[in-house]
């Protein structure tokens, strides 16, 4: 069975989220709401959906989301029972009517062998107006293939569009990055465990971007700090799986984040430099030399 987990904090669009659950064509799911010590108690809204879908509400007295959002996700997952699959749905995002139905159809596909399933998405604004075209994905791809596509800006991704096996989540948990930026991206190649991610392009999740959402309010500096940590983990653990052009792309992205974040790990920088010699094209290598040696010099100087 599917558990839909909502780490709740903001009430602004929560009725829309709950209504989208009530409108599902398949009601074979249970909702778990973990209130992150919000000042806006949502229980009066939940009364309107009693007997429409199964739901449990729990209020945490300590706010974790402000500092450790991934820990809030994890303690909300801990509320679930024996459900085998988990979706973490944002408290302002909206499910298309057939998301749950398409999920169960996906499980019945011939030779199904995925730990992670994802839906198509449309970005919406505060007035529920579409803010983007429909984003779809290859039917099957590995977690690292997805990561490279995102580094190339060929796709977008957000937590709410994914459904994953609880057993693989338990083996890996979420990696904490500042404000949880890239924590979900890292999870998909962890949770997929070399198996391919299955895309349900017929199922649509509407992702809201507003002044109240994290992506609409967090500073660029926090996002760049998280990006550096995320790229470093790919660099350390996944580099050998990439082809030459992908390795070059990752090194270019890392170079940019190193300078933005004043990265000073001398051992990493030296190894990074020699990999640049191997994978950068000549013109890019010339441009990088001056910046990299300046970075190495300042590392010694400080």
From TrEMBL:
Domain of life: Bacteria
Alphabetized GO MF terms: glycosyltransferase activity
Pfam families tied to this protein: Glycos_transf_2 (PF00535)
SUPFAM superfamilies: Nucleotide-diphospho-sugar transferases (SSF53448)
PANTHER family attached to this UniProt entry: GLYCOSYLTRANSFERASE (PTHR22916), UDP-GLCNAC:BETAGAL BETA-1,3-N-ACETYLGLUCOSAMINYLTRANSFERASE-LIKE PROTEIN 1 (PTHR22916:SF3)
Source organism per UniProt: Flavobacterium qiangtangense
InterPro entries (UniProt xref): Glyco_trans_2-like, Nucleotide-diphossugar_trans
Coiled-coil ranges per UniProt: none
Keywords from the UniProt entry: Glycosyltransferase, Transferase
UniProt-listed Enzyme Commission number(s): 2.4.-.-
Protein name: Glycosyltransferase
Glycosyltransferase 2-like domain: residues covered: 4-151
